[in-house]
Design brief:
Blueprint (H helix, E strand, L loop, with lengths): L2 H20 L4 H4 L27 H13 L1 H4 L25 H10 L19 H17 L4
Helix pairs in contact: 3-6, 5-6
Length: 150
């Protein structure tokens, strides 16, 4: 084999791997995506996870009000998910080391392509400022920490 063949073969493998890693929405991969991972239906509201609710103060309190108005219909009360509409944010997938605060900012501003769950793409959320989203993130991070997600 010559160097060009090896180089082209390596490039093809790299493209294939990155496609599999970063575009996991092929129909054959949809079955591997969680729907209700760690689910214990908390109540009849379609919650996907059970949580311990901490005391919410400061900016997190403002974030709670924004979350309840804008996010809870899909992400459930206190971010526990809605098995009919959207994933729980109080989940290890959304821990800060995997989905940092800026990921929440980008998701709210631009929407996000489904990649961990089978709920479909999240549309952009109109009318939220970066400050609004920062307070929502503070709210979610407060609940996450109280539930062992750091």
């Amino acid at each position: 084999m010559n160097k060009l063949t090896l180089l082209l073969g390596g490039a093809a493998v790299a493209v294939g791997l990155s496609y599999k890693l970063f575009w996991p929405l092929h129909s054959e991969q949809m079955d591997d995506m969680p729907m209700a991972q760690d689910s214990a239906m908390a109540d009849a509201s379609h919650a996907m996870v059970q949580i311990e609710m901490p005391q919410i103060t400061g900016n997190a309190r403002i974030g709670q009000q924004i979350f309840e108005t804008t996010c809870a219909a899909c992400h459930g009360t206190a971010g526990t998910g809605n098995a009919q509409a959207g994933p729980p944010l109080i989940h290890k997938i959304y821990e800060p080391s995997h989905h940092g605060d800026e990921a929440f900012q980008r998701a709210a501003a631009m929407g996000v392509r489904a990649h961990h769950w089978r709920f479909g793409n999240m549309p952009p959320q109109e009318g939220l400022t970066r400050g609004d989203v920062a307070m929502v993130v503070d709210y979610i991070r407060t609940i996450q920490r109280a539930n062992g997600i750091h």
